[in-house]
Amino acid sequence: MRARLRMSKKSSNFAGKMTTMIITELKDLTQILNFEGEYALFRAKDEQGSYHGVINRKGEILWTWRHITMRIPGYPQLFKSINDTHEFVYYDVEKKTFVDEPIIDRGPLSKARQMVEDAPHIPFFPDVPGLFDYPSLRYLSDDYIGFSTQRMNWGIKDIEGNIIFPELFSTLGRGDAPNHFVVNYDDKHIGVIDEKKEWIIPPAYQALYWKGAYYVAYIQEGRKKQKCGLIDPQGNTLVPFDYDYLMPSRTEDLISAKKRGRYLFINSKNERIKLF
Question: What is the DSSP string of 53-84?
């Protein structure tokens, strides 16, 4: 693996010590998160432990950091993390420097989003206020909101307050349509249900996540091992359950995948794509 070294003004926290490293094999990384535009997040390990950073489509590592790194919505070249004193830091991979916190203009919030933002938090342990707080409302769509009044059990109501489902679900997530919800059926199997209580995708999965245009689904293989595949909103399998990990891009048909311990890129037709 070739590298060109550049010192950083904040090098005490690992930033920039090994920037512009060129990855020649994906096995050098432990995880690649999805590409959005020119950049993807990644995780890796070295002799000092795990680290995080940003990689481009040429396989060049543009930024490395010891702490978890996140995207900044609306700023594709900016990434957020914390430093050793737990202060937020913002790094511009194009300017190769730390910058001030950007202003994020989300525009006017819908009624549902505003309700969720204003919602109180509930302590996971009622006898210890403030410990492991979780929100009492969860945004599902501009028409429906998840609600909880007890320990991590969720129901669904509309924005007028009409209860669609009581607090039945320990798993609750957004689906592909405003009235589609990812829920668990019996604490073991997960599917997609609508507001009429009809299953759009039967509860046959161990985990299910809506990612832009597809569902990433996990099934149980053997006692402990899970396998990952990709399904469409109707429940049809697009990518077979042969993978350990799939992470679709939200902006194009490009999926970061892991199979038999090796990373690769595919599309929704299960065709391999070579980026590096």
Answer: EEEETTSEEEEEESS--EEETTEEEEEEEE-T
- List the domain boundaries for the chain: 11-99
10 backbone dihedrals φ, ψ, rounded to 5°? -115, 40
Indicate the CATH number for domain 11-99: 2.40.10
Taking alpha carbons only, the member of 223, 268, 274 closest to residue 246 is: 268
Which residues, at least 6 apart from 81, have a Cβ–Cβ distance to it below 8 Å? 52, 65, 67, 68, 69, 70, 88, 89, 91
> What's the order of all strands across the beta sheet hosting 154-158?
137-139, 144-147, 154-158, 163-169
Cα–Cα distance between 23 and 180 in angstroms, integer?
A: 40
The secondary structure of 213-250 as a DSSP string is TEEEEEEEETTTEEEEEEE-TTS-EEEEEEESEEEE-S
Q: Kindly report the length of the chain.
A: 276
- The tens digit of pLDDT for each residue in 15-27 reads 544 445 666 556 6
Its pTM surpasses 0.90: no
What average pLDDT does this structure show over 229-252?
94
Report pLDDT digits (tens) over 33-72: 778 889 999 988 888 888 899 999 888 889 999 999 999 9
For 155, the token pair is 């129901």
Spatial contact of 207 and 218, defined as CB atoms under 8 Å apart: yes
Whether 7 contacts 16, CB under 8 Å: yes
Average pLDDT over residues 163-167: 96
